[in-house]
Amino acid sequence: MQELNNWPVAARRLVTGVFTDIDDTLTTDGAITPDALQALADLKAAGLHVIPITGRPVGWSEPFALSWPVDAIVAENGAVALLSSQKGPQPLQDGHNQLSKLYQQDEATRRANYARMQQVARRVMQEVPGAVLSQDSPGRETDIAIDHSEFAHLPAEAIAQAVQIMQSEGMNATVSSIHINGWFGAHNKLEGARWIVRELLGRELDAEMERWVYVGDSTNDQLMFEAFPHSVGVANIRRFEAQLAHKPRYVTKGERGAGFAEVARVILSARST
């Protein structure tokens, strides 16, 4: 992981879009900071695409998709997208604003998977001491989440046990900075990024990967760190460094929202030189 100032100016000038994690990347202590929110606005004002992609549920993400200056939010680890335009089959009204939901799975698949996931969640809570569902679980449609560091605390061995149970049931499982997420299906953050670029822009992400940046903070960002030539970890990723098989190319000096604001500044500064 190199210091952010080692990112070549010529490479930064090519950037036309930013994917970012939310928890502990945009947010600090559970809330977006003014500097991170301003960074989103500055990137959008400069004409860049800005798309947060998160393990958080679609219900939790809706107010932010409406109020933040972003193109879309991809929630539940790539399964659902919220667009602040009128694209998509399921518009959500909020005053004069409108969101649309897009899903990677059809309704019948989602319904069947939901029932199976609740069974796995009950097994995890029965077998893993201290395991509880995340408090944002009522807003989840396509995954389950066990809280390990947001409002509850699980030791490393309990986290590993929960992951093992999910995987033994045929689920994908990842560990973010706060939750253990499990789901059925082939989607993940990287596939979600490819999908939303196709749906939103009508383009193929893999053909223009050098024009995008990914910013993250945790072990569940490794697919993105591996895939994106311009990948950045905010400084608090160092607490997971020993667990990362795939590390970000660069790391910020600032943690969490301050680190994201740092990334935005270096991208925008390159466009004015």
The rounded distance between the terminal residues' Cα atoms is: 25 Å
Radius of gyration: 18 Å
Structural class: alpha/beta
Shape: globular
Sheet-strand content, in percent, reads: 15-25%
* Residue-averaged pLDDT: 94
* Total DSSP helices: 8
In percent, how helical is the residue content? 25-40%
**Strand arrangement in the largest pleated sheet:** 1-15-14-13-2-5
Helix and strand pattern = EHEEEHEHEEEEHEHEEHEHEEH
What's the total number of strands? 15
Largest sheet: 6 strands, parallel
Report the uncertain regions. Answer: 86-91
Would you spell out the secondary-structure blueprint of this structure?
Elements: E1 2-3, H1 9-13, E2 17-20, E3 27-28, E4 31-32, H2 34-45, E5 49-52, H3 58-67, E6 72-75, E7 80-83, E8 90-94, E9 97-103, H4 107-127, E10 144-147, H5 156-168, E11 172-175, E12 179-183, H6 189-201, E13 212-216, H7 222-227, E14 231-233, E15 250-251, H8 256-271
Parallel strand pairs: 1-15, 2-5, 2-13, 13-14, 14-15
Antiparallel strand pairs: 3-4, 6-7, 7-9, 8-9, 10-12, 11-12
Q: Overview of this structure, please?
A:
The chain has helices at 9-13, 34-45, 58-67, 107-127, 156-168, 189-201, 222-227, 256-271; strands spanning 2-3, 17-20, 27-28, 31-32, 49-52, 72-75, 80-83, 90-94, 97-103, 144-147, 172-175, 179-183, 212-216, 231-233, 250-251. Helix 7 (222-227) links the parallel strand 13 (212-216) and strand 14. The chain has 8 helices and 15 strands. The strands form 4 sheets. The protein has a 6-stranded parallel β-sheet. The model is unreliable at 86-91 (pLDDT under 50). The protein is an alpha/beta fold and 273 residues long.
